[in-house]
Amino acid sequence: MRPRVKEYDHADRYPHELVEQMKEMGLFGATVSPEYGGLGLPASLYARIVMHISSVWMALTGIFNSHLILALAVEKFGTEAQKRQWLPRFASGEVRGGLALTEPDAGTDLQGIRMTARREGDTYVINGTKTWISNSIEGSCVALLVKTDPNAQPRHKGMSLFIAPKGPGFTVGRKLEKLGYKCIDSGEIVFNDYRVPADHLIGGEEGQGFRQVTGGLELGRINVAARGVGIAEGALKLASDYAQIRRTFGKPIAEHQAIQLKLGEMATRARAARLLTLDAAMSFDRGERCDMEAGMAKFFASEAALENSIESMRIHGAYGYSKEFDIERLYRDAPLTCIGEGTNEMQRIIISKQWLKRNPVG
Ligand SMILES: Cc1cc2nc3c(=O)[nH]c(=O)nc-3n(C[C@H](O)[C@H](O)[C@H](O)COP(=O)(O)OP(=O)(O)OC[C@H]3O[C@@H](n4cnc5c(N)ncnc54)[C@H](O)[C@@H]3O)c2cc1C
Question: Which of the chain's ends, N or C, has fewer CB atoms near its CB within 10 Å?
Answer without folding.
Answer: C
